[in-house]
Structure prediction request, 229 residues.
Amino acid sequence: MSGAQRGGIFFRLLVLMMLALLLAAVYLARHPLLRLAGNWWEVQDRLERADAILVLGDDNFAGERASRSAELYRAGWAPLVVASGRRLRSYASVAELIGRDLETGGVPATAILRFPHRASNTREEAQALGELVAGRGWRRVLLVTSNYHTRRARYIFRRVFPPQVTVLIVSVRDADFDPDSWWESRQGRKLFLLETAGYLAAVWEIWRSDSGAGPGTGAAPASESPVAK
Prediction:
């Protein structure tokens, strides 16, 4: 065997050893890396008094977004809570369900603005709510959503809303997604993967809309007149 052949074998063995060490390091550090990935999705802005609290639909089964919004209202952070939610039927909407949860949480019916719409994603919901916010002349809003959804919501709303409106994100604990152990449950893994895909889709759609190309430039989805009860 020539020296060149021996050198080639040694080099390949060295590469395999380095690869094995790298894989071992990733395996040993998998939990810290997964926790870092889970926590990356959550953002939280400093609370400031606002014109309104916007509760994004869809809330989870426990109604945790509505519960946190009710706490904010009772603490005096805003005089009005907007229950945003898609139409389920001609006679029912997620906005109605969130509104009922808010009332259960101690928000007076007169301080709840039900906002049914036909948005199919967060960007369309932001477009519909942007029209409401602009029409009301609001300057600062608290945007309440689940922890895993906060980064995407902030990215979308701060690009879709009128530039004069300050959007402050309020993160809500979600029973289905723990950033420190999301990989241990099927629902946690599902939410993580869906949020990753949703964020990438939002970046793509907003980029196309800003560049004036493709279907992202269409009008906002139809929303109905807000209902105060």
